[in-house]
Amino acid sequence: MEKATRAAQFKLTLLSRIYVGINLDPDIVGAIRFVDLADHPPQISFQDGSTVVDHGRQLSTSASTDATRTTMIAMAIAKGWTRVQPSGDAAFIREMAITAAKSGLEVTGVPPDVQVLADEHLARFQRRRRRIDQEAQAAQIAHLSAAVDRDASIAENAEARAAIVAEKAAVSAAAQAASDAIGPGRSVPEQRARLAIRDNEATNLKALPDARKAPAPQAAPDVDRHDRHGGRKLRDRLRENDRHELEELKRLDIGTVAFACGWADVSQSHPDSSDRIGQAFRIYTRDKDTIKASLVDDKWLWTSNKSGKAGSVIHLWLADHPATSLGDARAALRELAGHPAPNPAPKPASAPMHRDDKKERDHTFARNRWAEAKHVTAQRSYAEKRGIAHETLARFPEELRVGAFGGVYFAHRNLETGDIQGFEQRWEDENGNKNTARFAKGGRKTVNVLGDPARATRMAVVESGLDALALAEFEDRDDTLYVSTGGGFGPLTEAALLRLAQGRTVVSAFDNDRGGETHHRKLLGFLADANRLAPPSPVQGQHGVCKDWLDVLAAHKGTGKDPRSAPSNGETSPYPSFSTDIPLEFDDPRPF
To answer: Considering the entire predicted model, what is its pTM?
Structure first.
């Protein structure tokens, strides 16, 4: 029995390496005969001879059984799918649709009678999930509130006890001083005086409160188990109703939303562009429509030349997705905030089961791309073309890879398991065109970490992997983690930064421009002790402005000096840095 348990656990461990967080019943795991993740495509074989094959954006099975259907649904959920479209014979479609809906997946493209059943099961699941989520959230808030109350009581009691102990010590010290003043004489008057002092000390001590008794009521640590809600009222609004979240979503970079909606950035080539680098003004085109966007108070505002529509990034997403609600936009922008997306790819041909939502994320493809890429020292990469030394790349062999066109990949891992979940990517093709999709398709963005967490006492946060490499080479420190956010602050990125910041000093090394200052303020929102380490601009002996650490590194190399000898290796820079007080001039195309 123990051997069988170990074998089942090993199969589940193998599955978890690719399908992070997969949840399978022990009976289903026991029905699996072999897990072949090295095969192309990956394949799972069952004891009855049936198989399930993962084609990336599609899943297929050789037989419709409870085990294969349940496994396919678990794989789909682990891949991050929320909508599926089963195809095959009528019996398989019906069974798979009901199984998927019962697990919370939306079903599309099935016969009307099956669709009605699936929608009913999905509605029941969603109602049950809402109740569970509400109860879990209420219980968590009650537990945290009880913990805060308990900690406050403990602190108050400790302070009161300390005051009583100090007062008793003062009474005893005064009595001892009076006794010492009388001296050790043996005469009757001296002995009576010392006895009176001791009696007075005892009387005074007895009049003081008992330090063993807590002056403030102190709840038991598990009191909330008996009353999960504890009668407490929710003091904060739920996230869906939080107006502050809307303000943060409006600060999302418009490029992230535009790429997800199929718009192309033509700021560098469009004749109407007044800002070729897109710092404060950008132009996007799609089909025959053109939108112009301006950065105003850290928020991008756009106007369509064709339709006349205008608004924030939220309105841009809503305009591209008619018949959707503000809640849908919020959910989509939360995803985009953590996972900047390239232009959407065309949908694949129909198969037994496939994902039917091009906005969803499947990091399996990104994992496979990383596994197939070469080590960064195997050939010349785009990083070296941008001025990064080969020796610097060799310092971080496990976090870097090289792909097509010499493109450099920067690993984004699950910090708990170490598994690859996605990667930043930068390259330039033979025509000199830089890639626009800066993150692997379908990947889950966390952070890229360069350095040894076991030795690092300092963390420098930058916008991109290339900036992290440049700063690492510029400083040449082994006590620092050089962490890239990949350009966004999604929930996974924030959680990773909070975890990495524990026990370390944090410096904000974002670009020396308005965008860098915006990132710095966002970082201060959850890491308030972070210090600003802006790239120095200009570098002594060089002309021009250094926007980021790549520019700084190139400028120092241009002077013929070793960058490691630069005085800006400390936490402050002797050179002038960008200030948000400096006005930026740009054309505002908005009619209002």
So the answer is: 0.42
